[in-house]
Amino acid sequence: MFADCILIVFISVCTAFLGEGLTWIMVYRTEKYKKLKAEVEKQSKKLEKQKENESNDRVQKKKLERQEEKLKTNSRDLSLVKMKSMFAIGFAFTALLSMFNSIFDGRVVANLPFTPISFIQGISHRNLPGEDYTHCSFIFLYILCTMSIRQVRSIYIVFEMNKKKERKALNKWVTFIFLRVHKFSHVPFVLLFCYMLNLVW
Amino acid sequence: MANHSTKKSSKTTVEDAHAGQSLLSKAFTPEFQWTDKDEFLDVIYWIRQILGLMLGLVWGIIPLKGFIGLALFLLVNVAIVYIYYNSFQKVDEEEYGGASEILKEGLMTSFSSFLVAWIILYSALHSETGS
Asked: Which parts of the chain span the membrane according to its record (chain A) (predicted)?
């Protein structure tokens, strides 16, 4: 049982790394992504500078608005670039997951120290025989592991972004944009999770 | 305008003074002046992660069972973060969008790492069919 748990943690770490590697190959190292990212960083810095010497001039304000709009489109493009490849990776991982699922089919991998609430029981007692709801299936532990690992990984990406930017430019606006981009990158993961759950159901 | 620029330059000197300090030493300096809000939230995030893992291990070894374990984890986790930012760092929570924003930061991740640690240790040490 303990070996199974460790194996599952290992599997989720591996898949997280694999996913990250694939994303790097398909997104981060591409020219389009680099260009867009540089553009967004440049624009947000520029915008920040202009905001500092804010004036009530109407023309200035309009210019500012136009730039904000441009920045928004660019960051949207950035997340779109990410999203496409993430969907591809998502499908690959679904296949991988269904394979693991069949390997661990009907096997109790851990004993839960608590009885999950009814709607979680569908996941935690998935494909397991018997009525003991403290028995934990592969998929539940896997999802938990992935949740903690993936979040750590994505916060690392934000860290990297923050470090590269000039400290002075790191203000609310920039963070807002980056968090937005960052938040968008979670959309495919959420969709993927729903899809995976549907598939293994 | 002149006022604005002096304010800005004084801020820069504070930033420069803290530039060499690592995040860890900043985190353990009481009432540290956080010029970068993100950094403070990162500190909270990592404290949460470590706390989640530690509490998971402790809960697994004791072992705590059932709903009380979950509730106790949430309570301890939130309380420690609250004490940290309120008494140790004395941060103005309004700057971060209220207490709930700080208390929410990284809670879900911390919860999942806690569950993983708790479940693995509990089933390895205390279940009848374990190990």
From this structure: 6-27, 86-104, 139-159, 180-200
